[in-house]
Automatic annotation (TrEMBL):
Keyword field: DNA-binding, Transcription, Transcription regulation
Superkingdom assignment: Bacteria
Keyword flag Transport: no
HTH tetR-type domain residues: 12-72
Keyword Transcription applies: yes
This protein's name: TetR/AcrR family transcriptional regulator
Annotated organism of origin: Paractinoplanes ovalisporus
Amino acid sequence: MSTVTRTRLTATERQEQLIAAAIQAFSQSGYAGTTTDQVARLAGVSQPYVIRLFRTKQELFLAAVQHAGNRIEAKWRKAAEEEPTLESLGRAYKDLLQQPELVTMLLHGFGAASDPAIGDPVRTCFGRLYDVVRELTGASNEEARDFFAFGMLLTCLGGMRLVGPDAVPPQPWAADLLGTFENLT
């Protein structure tokens, strides 16, 4: 007779597990198209448990957006430890494009920002990333604007699955655009 020992997750580990499931679910179906029940099934927990931890779908969504922002900030801070330049942070962001759920989660956050309860936290998250870039690199307003403009283009291309591990064959316009990038992959 074999005994199966289960390791009980801490509250923090369970919350991280739910946020990972939320990122997966929201990146596939967006804010409006995702239910807390779908997130619960992905995480292997009950829907009431999700609500107990996050209270509402909106709070879960915002936690997922915040997690995506935190991952980007952490990646940039690590890159800046070695080389505090916009180029270094750009290379770090390109690495993040290999995680399509993260990129798509950001896009869904931006898309849902017209909802006032979602918009303020999403704008705060984006503003924090802007401030971090300026802090880490000493970039001017214009340099930071150009960095984010290029990053948003990459984010949109990633969301359309034109870059990243699950990239689809590009249409002619996309092949032309992608051909203008150096070392994108």
